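Supplementary Methods, section 5.1.

A reviewer requested that the exact input to the structure prediction be made available. We therefore reproduce it here, unchanged from the version used in the analyses.
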Amino acid sequence: MSVSRIKNVGFWLLFLSTLLATACHKDKPLPPPPPLQGSVGDSGRPTPTTPAPTITLRATPGTIDRGGTTTLEWEARNAATVTITPGIGDVAITGSRPVNPTSSVTYTATATGPGGATTDVARVTVNVPPVSGTDPNAGRPPNVTADTLGGDDLKDVLFDYDKADIRPDQVAVLQRTAAALKAKGNARFTIEGHCDERGSEEYNLGLGDRRANAVKEFLLGQGIPANRMNVVSYGEERPVCRDETEDCYTKNRRAHFAVTQ
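The structure derived from this sequence is encoded token-by-token as follows.
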């Protein structure tokens, strides 16, 4: 075979191998696009995020004298329900309400909606007329004393630290109280919730409220009508003693009875 012919055969072999290599080559697929932030619906498009609720709560005025009135005003957005505690409950999304607390209190408004829940607080300071001496019972409404009801039947109910459950050793105390209150007929009374000084002022107001309501629920079970009972929390504002000892703390963690004539 001549040299020229060999070159022609070599050329066509090289051409065919190049053609076959090109025909078998496949383009690599493009990488997928980066994921979209947020949730993605069936259409592949991001779904809108549900807005979180907002709420503002204020008390005007923020400081009153005992017996006075202040007005709570609130406004919520992106909310389905609004609840205000203590003592008010479910309210309209936006509104106002006059209140006359007998002691300093922090109101908490909670707005709940599809986007979650949020809260705001308003503090109302109640000025109590100054009294002389250090008697923790001074300044309270007129009481029927324990002597009037028969000895020690209106003892304070004591609680464990940071607890609002009725202790087993306090059950007999409450049973004697219930019997004395039944004997008194229709006398109305207030159950005061108290705490020791540990913890924030706002937290102790809530804890005192839970303690007073625990006593109320017990007395309801003993047959005392609900319309005879009122509940109030003084938190840490009215201690029996101010010593930083466990004995003093124990005395201050209590529910006290004030029976109004």
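The radius of gyration is 36 Å. These observations are discussed further in the main text.
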